[in-house]
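Async update (no meeting this week)

Hi team, since we skipped the sync, here's where things stand on the single-chain job. The sequence we agreed to prioritize is pasted below, unchanged from the tracker. I ran it this morning and attached the output directly underneath so nobody has to dig for it. Comments welcome in thread, and please keep replies under the output.
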Amino acid sequence: MEVIDLTNLPISDDEGDTVSHEELENAVDAMTEARLRKIVIKLADRIPAFKSALMKEAMVVNGKKRKAVPRWDVCANCKEEYDVSDERDDEECCYHSGGLDVDEEYFPDHDEDCHGPMDTEENRAQCPEGFIWSCCDENARSEGCETGQHISGGKVKKRR
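Output:
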């Protein structure tokens, strides 16, 4: 059976102008998340089939009370997004339970009075090997030392 790629076929708008799938994707990529959210809600309000499809993708009925909840959450431990409707696995989440401490041996000539504090977001990003996890004594680049199931509640702040 032959597979036909339809992803780059032109899309017609209301005025009859055509844009390619790639051009539409580029426009979506250029939007702020807030604008994209507004468009999605507006489309859901106007197009019942879109609303139904969106609800299937974004919501699940959960628990004994049969309450609709968001389908996607961010794990409080590993900060990864996961599908709450998937069966949980005891090794799906890999994380560090401790905090990051400065490895002062990594910064032997650092003088905080002259150079400023060692423990900054910038230093953590630029020099992760200069920070040690308190839970396993590995540097910040190391994979998590503990595993478990994803834990709800690690919501990433929405950018507005």
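Quick observations from my side:
The chain has five helices and ten strands.
Strands lie at 10-12, 18-20, 59-62, 67-70, 72-74, 81-83, 93-95, 100-102, 131-133, 146-148.
Reply here if anything looks off.
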